[in-house]
Design a protein that fits this description.
Blueprint lengths: L1 E6 L5 E7 L14 E8 L14 H4 L5 H4 L4 E6 L25 H11 L3 E10 L1 H12 L4 E7 L5 H5 L21 H8 L10 H8 L29 H4 L6 H7 L2 E7 L8 H8 L4 E6 L7 H7 L3 H14 L11 E4 L9 E4 L7 E8 L4 E2 L9 E5 L14 E4 L7 E5 L2 E8 L5 E9 L5 E2 L4 E5 L34 E6 L3 E5 L4 E7 L13 E5 L7 E7 L1
Parallel strand pairs: 3-4, 3-5, 5-6, 6-7, 7-8, 8-9
Antiparallel strand pairs: 1-2, 2-4, 9-10, 11-12, 11-24, 13-23, 14-22, 15-21, 15-24, 16-20, 16-23, 16-24, 17-18, 17-19, 17-22
């Protein structure tokens, strides 16, 4: 491994670590030009655990170091203004979208392509923010960036940061106690100097440029909110500026091949790749595993599937020209929970699945059924309790479930929910979770929920292919407060899933009324769910027969 600074077009220097393969007999570094895969990261190019222990290249999702012995060069680069890189950062782990950093990934890619140990075919890898940094790189279309492997990235950042229009749903910057170091000071203390910086004087100069770092974009409750925190004028409308969905024309024109990956047990990062593959016209693939965010160890443990092997196949095809058949396979590969052993992994030619049948399950007296409700004045009332754990069956939540299933039911795709509601307050948060109830009453689920703030319920035409799901404008001008006691209909999507509900089990829907970001009112409001012939509330499930 070697490290150095690379100068960007504006003179700012970014720290890079470079890992090249050695000859297994002589131990000498191989000089033959090879393809390069690199990560652009806000999370420390050198140390994955931020304790100066495990190397990022060895441990971060995708583990690029495992590909080095197969004839690849790997590299990791600190974001501008973070760790050992010079410059100024705003928005922390989305800082690559600010104007001063807009072309950093372009410049690094083209620098890598010019090195004598590079054959000019460049790829990128990484998960979460480093998946998003690959999306940002694609918007500038570096000529030598041939293929990327982004995992768990956002497509529309507002949906990730303010899911369902519930500001604060993901929490915020933790308040500092007097005397505590700032997040930037903590990062600076963990920064690794480059090789030539033997006395760390260059690192100290870089850290000096970090003064004035802006950690957060601030409280931006609407899709069109302007940030008062950010100094970059072009980035003030932050959700739009930092969303890959804003740059569809540029990404599609880039021609960069993408293999997108995500896991079913993620939260609001989950939907991004599903929308991306339906809006990109470039060569694209999608895989969905059973783990949590950036967790591919679970897939390997359960089924033996190794995401790094798949990564190698993809890069071999696009960076080495090896016709291994990967692009002839179905573009979608997904895991199904509770499938018979050996059939957990399935493939599809498109998403959503072509054989999907959307079935409406109507809310009844604690029940879910395909029979439409009759009569009038049927409703359920409860007082809001402030419990931030969606899906838990506790006081203040309303529960509806099917009868015990007479046969296995496969649900694969994107559920939606239509709820007729009212409240004694002028606003409220509504959260719908889907769970599997076993015959012994054991409940299981994996982040299958949707949520919506009632005042943000206005529906609009989506600016991109939203898979036919309800899309909300979330614009400040579209806020519609509730009239206390007056019923309104809320329509919103639920995070996608692929699960077989076994015969004898029940499909359960839990409606809750508070979560992280829900303001606490005193007295707590009373909310009502309507479920009669005039106010049909129902859950729509994508059934695969």
């Amino acid at each position: 491994m070697s490290s150095q600074y690379v100068e960007m077009r504006d003179g700012t220097k970014l720290a890079i670590d470079i890992y090249r393969p050695k000859d297994t007999i002589t131990g000498e570094v191989i000089k033959t030009p090879l393809p390069v895969i690199w990560m652009h990261t806000p999370y420390n190019r050198r140390y994955n655990d931020n304790r100066k222990g495990a190397l990022t290249v060895d441990n971060y999702a995708g583990t690029a170091s495992r590909l080095i012995k197969y004839g690849y060069v790997a590299a990791t680069v600190d974001f501008r203004g973070l760790f050992a890189s010079y410059g100024h950062n705003e928005g922390y782990n989305r800082g690559e979208w600010i104007s001063s950093a807009r072309n950093d990934a372009y410049d690094i890619t083209e620098w890598l392509a010019r090195q004598p140990w590079s054959n000019g075919n460049i790829g990128m890898w990484g998960c979460s923010a480093t998946g998003g940094s690959q999306m940002q790189a694609a918007t500038t279309a570096p000529p030598h960036l041939k293929a990327i492997f982004p995992m768990s990235f956002e497509f529309d950042v507002y949906d990730f940061r303010v899911p369902g229009g519930i500001a604060g749903a993901r929490g915020g910057v933790r308040p500092r106690r007097p005397g505590d170091p700032s997040p930037q000071e903590i990062r600076d203390a963990l920064a690794a100097p480059v090789d030539a910086d033997t006395d760390s004087m260059l690192l100290k100069k870089a850290i000096a440029e970090h003064a004035g770092t802006i950690e957060s974009e601030g409280d931006l409750p609407f899709r069109d909110s302007y940030s008062e925190n950010l100094t970059d004028e072009d980035s003030k409308q932050w959700w739009i500026k930092s969303s890959p969905s804003t740059y569809l024309d540029q990404i599609n024109a880039s021609g960069i091949a993408m293999y997108m990956a995500v896991n079913w047990d993620e939260g609001s990062t989950k939907p991004g790749p599903f929308f991306a593959i339906n809006n990109f016209t470039i060569p694209a693939k999608l895989i969905i595993g059973p783990g949590v965010h950036c967790d591919w160890a679970t897939s390997e443990k359960l089924t033996g599937f190794d995401i790094t092997v798949e990564e190698r196949r993809f890069f071999d095809y696009w960076l080495k020209g090896i016709d291994n058949g990967i692009m002839d396979e179905d573009p979608v590969y997904y895991y199904t929970y509770n499938a018979p052993e050996g059939s957990e992994w399935r493939s599809a030619k498109k998403w959503p699945l072509q054989e999907e049948k959307r079935v409406e399950y109507y809310l009844g007296d604690g029940s879910l059924s395909t029979t439409e409700p009759t009569g009038i004045n049927k409703k359920d009332r409860t007082i809001v309790t402030y419990d931030v754990r969606p899906g838990n069956v506790t006081d203040g939540k309303l529960v509806y479930e099917t009868a015990a299933l007479s046969e296995d039911v496969q649900v694969t795709g994107h559920p939606t929910i239509n709820l007729w509601v009212s409240s004694t307050a002028t606003d409220g948060d509504f959260i719908a979770s889907i769970q599997d109830v076993a015959p012994d009453s054991t409940i299981s689920s994996y982040n299958v929920y949707g949520q919506l703030r009632a005042s943000m319920r206005k529906l609009a035409e989506p600016p991109y292919n939203y898979l036919g799901l309800p899309w909300h404008s979330f614009m400040q001008a579209d806020v519609m407060p509730l009239v206390p006691g007056e019923p309104v209909e809320l329509v919103f999507p639920i995070l996608p899933l692929s699960m077989i509900f076994k015969a004898g089990h029940k499909i359960q829907l839990v409606i809750s009324f508070s979560g992280r970001g829900t303001p606490r009112l005193d007295p707590a409001p009373e909310v009502t769910i309507y479920r009669d012939a005039s106010h049909k509330s129902y859950l729509t499930l994508p059934i695969i027969e």
